[in-house]
Amino acid sequence: MIPRNALNCRLPGVRVPRSLIAEPQRFGGLVDADCLTGDLLVERGRAVELVASEAPVQSMILPRFCDPHVHLDKCHTIDRLGTVGGDLAAAIEAQRHDKAHWTEADLRTRAARGLMELRNAGCGTVRSHVDWGDSLDPGAVPLAWEVLGDLTKDCGLVVQRSALCGISQMAEPGYAAACARRIARDGGVMGAFVFDQPDRDAGIRNMFREAGKLGIALDFHVDEGLAPGLDGLERIADAALHIGFEGPVLCGHACALANLPSHDVARIADKLARAGIAVVTLPQTNLYLQGRTAGTPDRRGLTRVHELRAAGVNVVLGADNVRDAFSPIGRHDPRHSLSLAVLAAHLDPPFGDHLPMITSQALSALGLAPVHVDGTALQDLVLFQASSTSELLSGAPMRPVTDVLEPIS
């Protein structure tokens, strides 16, 4: 809680990554690598500018993080799964058996832990997928959907729920329409798993049509594999362009882009950019599941991060699975996701250039307004004891903003 006397205050000696300032030319401060430094002035509870400082620069301040892709219904189940490990199919099967344990108490305990971890990591916004189940009744809302909706009322985070259906379910027009109405009633997101299903085009078209009618966002798990022939990402882009869909669309995984030659990647990236489709890459899970051989993997399983960004596609980062059949270790921590991507996708310095992937650009991928440091309320900023963006991503501790603020009259 920010005290009332902090409506007008000063945070002495802070760094602000330039990539997280909407108007850096007006914000003030001295250039320090990929940051600006100075004393941060807060007026009427909002950050307004950096001014010259005599204090040592010891902290870094950022807007709260956004994780656009987690699975709070599955998290923290690994310890009861026994010996589990393998590719995507093996993980799906192991998690399917675990659903017998998904009571209200179990879901509430595990999801609440995940939400706490996200909050403690400095998150302000998150989208969690929820398995919609195999019921033929699209109005049969899964228990996890209701539990997560209840938990998020007072959790201190903005939480979007995305219903994760099979694309074959969505290929039936009546099911897609009824499901969309039920999701829209709760302010949710319509999602589906797209792999190599023969009726995937029909499902994709139905989802775009129904989401367009109701004004809801779409989210696809797509091409999560390195087998040849996976082409769901391009099919989604083609459908969006053909229909002229104007709502937010986020595609997760897109691992199969790694199979394609550069001219095919360029063609698909251009379609994604023109359609305004964002892509979330998920190194924590895909490094574990993808590229499995009899020995050491020699493929990383990530999408074409550099090529997509160069084409103007909004590429963001998420944790995906945490301590379940899909990723037996992991953290609900956007800084950790970005640090993994730095290593796995060769995201080179300056690291400040990549911070929007877990802040402003991640919010945009969810259809939300991007947040920057300038103009943001003090309670929506987080402070770290970091001397550089490299130290920030290497585990610098988070500090309460109230530890350093100095009220001014």
Written overview of the protein:
It is a single chain. Strands 1, 2, 3, 4, 5, 14, 15 and 16 form an eight-stranded mixed β-sheet that branches. The chain has an eight-stranded parallel β-sheet with strand order 6-7-8-9-10-11-12-13. The protein is globular, with a radius of gyration of 21 Å. Helix 7 (200-214) packs across helix 8. The chain has 409 residues and is an alpha/beta fold. It folds into two domains: 4-63 and 372-407, no CATH class; 65-365, TIM Barrel (Alpha-Beta Barrel). Helix content is 33%, strand content 22%. The longest helix is centred in the N-terminal third of the chain and has 17 residues, at 104-120. The chain starts with 8 loop residues before the first strand and ends with a strand.
Number of separate structural domains: 2
Give the SSE string: EHEEEEEHHEHEHHEHEHEHEHHEHHEHEE
Please estimate the helix content. Answer: 25-40%
Count of helical regions: 14
Question: Unreliable runs, pLDDT <50, ≥5 residues?
Answer: none
Query: What CATH architecture label of the largest domain applies?
Result: Alpha-Beta Barrel
* Estimated radius of gyration: 21 Å
**Hey, roughly how much beta strand do the residues contain?**
15-25%
Structural category is alpha/beta
DSSP strand count:
16
The top-level CATH class of the largest domain is: Alpha Beta
The pLDDT mean sits at 95
